[in-house]
Amino acid sequence: MTTSLLTHPSHSHKQLNSLISNTRKQMIDSALTSGFSSPETVQISQLLDHYLNLEQKQRNRSSQL
Fold it and tell me: 13: which residues sit within 8 A by CB, 6+ positions away?
């Protein structure tokens, strides 16, 4: 696993981003279905949003070089 992360960083980034997106979606879905959204859930989803935005900016910057 470690070697594949080192040899294919973009692939691992895609997997990580996919995992984060899915986690965020599941959190929001469960909050909506239960009719309950804790402050922690909101904070975590905002952090995940922030991470995904940073990743997107980094990818855009990399593709421009």
Answer: 55
Domain span at 58: 37-65
Task: Compute the CA torsion angle 14, 17, 22, 24 (nearest 10 deg).
Answer: -170
**pTM tops 0.70, yes or no:** no
**Cα–Cα distance, 17 to 26 (Å, whole number):** 14
Asked, for residue 57, whether it belongs to a domain, the answer is yes
Mean pLDDT across 23-38: 76
Handedness of CA 36, 42, 48, 53 (dihedral sign): positive
pLDDT of the residue at 1: 42
Angle at 13 between CA 9 and CA 14, to 5 degrees: 120
Mean local confidence (pLDDT), 60-65: 80
